[in-house]
Design brief:
- The protein is mainly alpha-helical.
- The chain contains 12 helices and 2 strands; from the N terminus they run H-H-H-H-E-E-H-H-H-H-H-H-H-H.
- The protein has a two-stranded antiparallel sheet with strand order 1-2.
- Helix 3 packs across helix 8.
Length: 282
């Protein structure tokens, strides 16, 4: 696997500004799955903070970092932030795990913070799961930093988030987190939002469905308020993504959650995230 990834990066390091229609070829030559790239990356970056970026990827990353993320404040009209934000981790804690756990507990009384419908334990599990992805991707970031030119064709394709689907998919993730099951096609779930705007069922981890891309997503207009677009999302962006089947309230149900979490633990996905983050930050 490592030799394949090195070969892919070397192939992709030719400097040029590629036309958008050449990006599937450029990315494929670098070992990146073009069709599933945007769904996976959007999940992997949706909760990044600037503190996380500086710890796992680039210590001097600026506040204007161009890494789009889902707004953790789900009462805000701004669903997606254009840059991973500085959120104020308590630097008195020496480990990222304790800093992240502290942030969860500081917000444990806010039902509409980070992931709608999750308990504090489930939110902490989500945070640690994301940190696992970033920690694994950090090694691939370091590899890309040694072998890849940030002005390469590949980086030109990966950083164009408005054309490669990442921006659209981050917007979709934001709505799935705010309105769990909104794209499930299950009217029992979607009618709750379209009618009373109830928001209690836990969001199902996006990779559960294999990061399937949606054909209609590229042209979908997210520049509307939640209430203006919810019906459109529920009817036209159906992908079967439902809600978590079990709350995290027992050892038995932890087995279910653990299996779900491990679905995303793959070397090829760590590679894609590491290369993406290198291109975005350099």
């Amino acid at each position: 696997m490592l030799l394949l990834l090195v070969a892919g990066i070397l192939t992709a390091s030719v400097m040029a500004a590629p036309p958008t229609n050449t990006c599937p070829r450029v990315m494929a030559e670098a070992g990146i799955d073009y069709d599933n790239f945007a769904p996976f990356i959007s999940h992997s970056i949706h909760s990044l903070t600037l503190e996380d970026i500086r710890f796992y990827f680039k210590s001097d990353a600026p506040e204007e970092n161009n890494v789009p993320t889902v707004n953790a404040d789900m009462e805000s009209e701004e669903r997606v932030l254009p840059h991973a934000p500085l959120v104020g981790y308590d630097e008195d804690f020496s480990t990222p795990a304790m800093r992240q756990f502290d942030m969860v507990l500081r917000n444990m009384d806010r039902a509409d913070w980070q992931v709608r419908g999750y308990s504090p334990l489930e939110k902490a599990t989500h945070v640690f799961h994301m940190a696992e992805l970033w920690n694994k991707a950090a090694d691939q970031y370091d590899l890309a930093a040694r072998l890849l030119d940030p002005e390469s064709e590949l980086c030109g394709c990966l950083t164009d988030v408005r054309s490669n689907g990442v921006w659209q998919h981050v917007n979709l993730v934001a709505l799935k987190i705010r309105y769990p099951g909104i794209t499930s096609g299950n009217e029992t779930l979607t009618d709750r939002y379209l009618g009373a705007r109830q928001k209690r069922s836990p969001y199902a981890l996006g990779y559960r469905l294999g990061f399937a891309p949606h054909k209609r997503l590229g042209q979908f207009d997210f520049n509307r308020s939640d209430m203006e677009l919810l019906r459109d999302v529920a009817e036209n962006l159906v992908d079967g993504s439902g809600v978590m089947e079990h709350e995290l309230d027992s050892a038995e149900h932890w087995e279910y959650w653990r299996t779900m979490l491990k679905t995303a633990m793959r070397d090829d996905l760590y590679y894609e995230l590491g290369v993406f983050m290198f291109c975005m930050l350099n």
